[in-house]
Amino acid sequence: MNAVTDDAMAGRGWGSVDDEEAGTRAELAARLRLLRAERRLSVTALERRSGLGRTTISQALNGRKVPSEATVIALAKALGTSPPPLLELRSRAVAPTTAAVHEQSDEDVAFERRYRDYVIDRYSQLTVVGLDLTRPEGACWPLDTAYLSLELAARDERSDMPASWPEGHGTPMTVERAEQALAGRQRTVIRGLAGSGKTTLLHWLAVMSARQNPPSEMDHLRHLMPFVLPLRTLDRQSALPGPHSFLEATGSMLAAAQPTGWADRVLTAGRGLLLIDGIDEVPQQRREHTRAWLRELLAAYPQAYVLVTTRPTAVPEHWLDGSGFTELTVRPMNRRDVLVFVNRWHCAAKAAPGLEESFTEAVRGQRDLAQLATTPLMCALMCALHRDRRGHLPRSRMELYEAALSMLLVRRDHERGIDAPEGISLTRHQSVQLLQRLAYWLIRNGQTEMEEESALAVVEEALPAMPALSAQGDARQVLTHLVGRSGLLRKPTADTIDFVHRTFQDYLGAKAAVEARDLGLLVRHAHDDQWEDVLRMAVAHARPTERATLLRRLVARGDRTARHRTRLHLLAMACLEQATELEPGVREAVEGRAGALLPPRSYAEAKELASVGPVILDLLPGPEGLESDEARAVVQTAVAVGGDAALSLLKRYRDCTDHGIRNSLASGWSSFDTEEYAREILDHLPDDVTVHVANAAELKAVRGLHTRAGISCNGNFSASELMHAIERNQLRVLCIAGNQTLSDIGFLRQLPRLRDLTLTDSGGPFDLIPLDGLPINKLVLWGARRRDLAPVGRLPTLEHLNLNSPLDQPSIAALPDLPHLRELYLWEETHSSTTLSGICALSSLEFLSIVAPVAEDAWQELTLLSALAGMQLVDQEVSALGAHSPLPQVTHLVLNNPSSHADLSPVMDAFPNVRNLSIYCRSYSDPTVDLTPLAGIEGLTVYITDAESVTGLDLFPPGAITQFPSPRPRA
Predict the structure, then answer these.
(1) DSSP assignment of 692-721, as one string?
(2) 908 and 971 assigned to the same domain
(3) Three-state secondary structure call for residue 158
(4) Radius of gyration (Cα) for the chain, nearest Å?
(5) CB 637 within 8 A of CB 666
(6) In this predicted model, what pLDDT tens digit does every residue of 342-397 receive, in sequence order?
(7) Same domain, residue pair 845 and 939
């Protein structure tokens, strides 16, 4: 094959190619603009529905560049059209140029064959803690055996979720195995705790793409060229590298052999897979620089596939918003995952018969151990300790690390009869002292990897104070021994050193900080997520007086620093778990600050508390003595934390009658073992609670529940799968959402008691004809496709209709006759396609929800609806209400996300007889409510949510004003 010339690669000399590309690109952009006009979607609405950034959408609509496949698919779904025709246009737009790019030279082909073999060899072995105590090199595990398909959770951020989704529960979660969760995704951020398997996942993806035999769900990997880019290594450079330096920066021996411009050609052609590992391992002050580098890469190579990993708290949610990234979170291993991992570990380690069964029984029988064995790292460490201790395990986290150090540093060589193989013999104390110094250097410098020369300098500085050791050899010999024999250090490249896992670095660095009496340094860095585990372990290492000083200073800094106050006070509270002995006054001070945060009173507070981790569960009260908002938030916190301890807490709430608590319980099982959650929680809920299902395992578990009167299914379930889980003569409530494959809902006719139905389109519209004549009382229809509502007119008992879909009808007057309709909700999609003209024909209407603005002629028709006692106005400009005719029949009013709300007096001008007013402030730019204009109205009650402050409260009698969450008493 002949090499492609530079001019051809740039498109010069191919005049017709440029014209063809521009023409097809313009045609694709025009098609997208037409679809947007037909759907009457603003750019903001399209941005929200697609999950894409404004710049990406603008470039696609204006035809300035060819959008990626992922962008086209996202836009197609948001616009309610089938992706293939748009993808065909895109293919034609890029084919003239990429054909040239894809025509590889013989040199490129030969190098890529060699590079794939190199990737397979380099990343197909995984180091596993304690797998072989006899030989360090024996701690390697073939990736094919070691890889355990992780569960990844994604928040469903689509705008078309039904209104019936649990209030305050946030967006629903979809949990899938990695192969399914990553299928077809071009840009992904993967969040996970230390040791959760993020790096192993990236290595597995690299090997699968290099072998060109990925699982069927990830067939797009087959033609991709992987670049594994550990940021801990790259960040040591003076500047983060460009593609031409990827191999050199990561220490690849093939760097000098790659053809000039090869990496650029791979990425330009859309064949590059960038596996960027460890945002959390970049110093906090350099993360913005890293984000800028990443965005520069995406701008230069928009067709590249990118996966980025990070610890959960290292960067905020949506850190890469606007760049088309999907955020996924690694879930803890469930019990079945642990059993699979334990079996593989014992097989690979050739453990003695009976040890695997003994370990499994120990973990099952001891809750503390079960909570520790939820990541591959900790599970492997526990397996190794269990084998080394002949069937016995430590119980706490600190005991576990202490035992691991003893096993790895001393007993391994001593019990195997290995004596100073490099001429160096270290006691456990000497090893720990040196490792502490190395770990503390890394922590102080905000690094997880250090140059070998820096490590040598640290060891050399320590040797004069250790004469017995310095007599055995110089710093290089000692460091070589530590790397070769400790089991805690490794050399990721020829000239760098790091710890086998960050956990050991933090443990040893915390010990060094305490011994150096650097308590002030620990407190000064307490707001930095990289120091979080260091602080917790320092509290455990410290002596009682040091522990008290550390916590006292941590609380005091939180008192002084408003910006970090919540985080610092929550961290102090989390540290109490490690404070086995502590002055009562200090404990009281820490718990007093926690009292300002506990119990939580909103979903936002619940989420913040959950970030502290499982320790928060011991401090959550109730349900006795809690207000409803507090009890709901406690449940939401426990659901977000997950695990056995959270399940024990939730059991206390399963008999509560509050609707919000029951909804949170009915949709919270994605954080727990599916079967256990169904048995311990869901099976105890009453019949009228709708259980929310997001995956096949949950749907299967539903079938075993004693009651299945209400089910909400979010995902691609077939009609047969749904019917298998449904109790046909019992089901009354059904929600089908996020289903991209189901189009025929004829099976609903087999459900004689169905009264409440929600249908949310994702892939294609549901044909409503099968609903003809069914005794449905409540119908919710959401989605991007236009709808013909004629079949709705043949629902004889319909009383509640909730619409968020574009309608074929130009006005409400064209709706079918709905003589019994009492409640009507018209959301943004319907509002943008249909006017309210003719609404006066719905004479039985008692409640109406509409999106502002409302034309005056339509508002005049509302005055004719004598039964209209309640209204909800969404996105209403309050000042505009004064221009409308009064609606004296309305007594109950909801203002959902109102604007220009500084003066509420126009509310009473438009609704003079309102006696029940609700104000939802979720999206307020200035969430302050002034009730003064409403004072003096006899019998008025007001319900306010999510307001930061409310003025005029003293003008109302007790009980007239309700705030959610309820304000905390002032200290």
Answers:
(1) EE-SHHHHHHHTTSS--SEEEEES---HHH
(2) yes
(3) coil
(4) 31
(5) no
(6) 888 888 778 888 888 888 877 776 655 666 677 787 788 788 888 877 777 776 77
(7) yes
- Taking every pair of Cα atoms in the chain, the longest distance, rounded to a whole number of angstroms, is 100
The gap from C-alpha 541 to its chain's centroid, in whole angstroms, comes to 33
Q: How far apart are CA 351 and CA 380, in angstroms?
A: 13
Q: Give the torsion through C-alpha atoms of 238, 240, 245, 251, to 10 deg.
A: 70
| Burial status of residue 512 (CB atoms within 10 A of its CB: 0-12, 13-18, 19 or more) | buried
CA-based torsion, 355, 360, 364, 369: positive or negative: positive
Query: What are the residues facing 892 on neighbouring strands?
Result: 870, 916
Number of domains in the chain: 4
pLDDT of residue 673 exceeding 90, the answer is no
The contacts of residue 814 (CB under 8 Å, 6+ apart) are 838
Instruction: Please tell me whether residues 59 and 117 are part of one structural domain.
Output: no
Q: Are strands 916-920 and 928-930 parallel, antiparallel or unpaired?
A: unpaired
Q: Terminal CA-to-CA distance of the chain, rounded, Å?
A: 78
Report pLDDT digits (tens) over 352-365: 888 888 888 777 76
Residue pair 582/576 in contact (Cβ under 8 Å)? The answer is yes
**Which helix (H) or strand (E) segment is 760 a member of?**
strand 756-761
In a domain, 276, yes or no: yes
Q: Report the alpha-carbon distance of residue 28 to residue 153 in Å, rounded.
A: 33
Q: Is the peptide bond before 686 cis (omega within 30 degrees of 0)?
A: no
**Alpha-carbon gap, residue 479 to 488, rounded angstroms:** 12
Q: In angstroms, how far is CA 78 from the centroid of its own chain?
A: 21
- Residue 214 forms part of a structural domain: yes
Q: Is the pLDDT of residue 703 over 80?
A: yes
Contact (CB, 8 A) for 537 and 510: yes
646, exposed or middle or buried, with CB in 10 Å at 0-12, 13-18, 19+? Answer: buried
Residue 408 has pLDDT above 80, yes or no: no
Which pLDDT band holds residue 20 (cuts at 50, 70, 90)? low
Pick from 52, 9, 102, 79: nearest CA to 298:
52
Asked whether residue 118 falls in the same domain as residue 46, the answer is no
Q: Which two tokens stand for residue 813?
A: 């007057």
* Burial class (CB within 10 angstroms; exposed 0-12, middle 13-18, buried 19+) of 59: middle
Asked if 662 contacts 641 with a C-beta cutoff of 8 angstroms, the reply is no
The phi-psi region of residue 554 (left if phi > 0; otherwise alpha if psi is between -120 and 50; otherwise beta) is alpha
Task: Provide the 8-state DSSP code for 408.
Answer: I
The pLDDT value recorded for residue 744 is 85
CA distances from 510 to 368, 528, 578, 747, 830 (A): 23, 15, 13, 61, 58
What single-letter amino acid sits at 445? N
pLDDT at 833: 74
The last residue of a domain, from among 554, 580, 595: 595
Q: What percent of the chain has pLDDT over 90?
A: 27
Highest mean pLDDT among 159-168, 488-497, 543-552, 620-629: 543-552
- Domain boundary at 307, 331, 355, which? 331
pLDDT-based confidence at residue 428 (cuts at 50, 70, 90): confident
* One domain, residues 30 and 114: no
Is 504's pLDDT higher than 80? Answer: yes
- Residues 56, 115, single domain; the answer is no
SS (H, E, C) 942-971: EEEECCCEEECHHHCCCCCEEEECCCCCCC
Q: Which of 627, 562, 574, 568 is nearest to 600 (CA)?
A: 627
Choice among 186-190, 217-221, 798-802 with the minimum mean pLDDT: 217-221
55 and 114, same domain (yes or no): no
Banded model confidence at residue 163, pLDDT cuts 50, 70, 90: very low
Same domain assignment for residues 89 and 176: no
Residue-wise pLDDT tens digits, 453-478: 999 999 999 999 988 888 888 888 88
Structural domain for 313, as ranges:
107-122+149-157+170-331
Question: How much is the pLDDT for 254?
Answer: 94
For residue 783, tell me if it sits in a domain: no
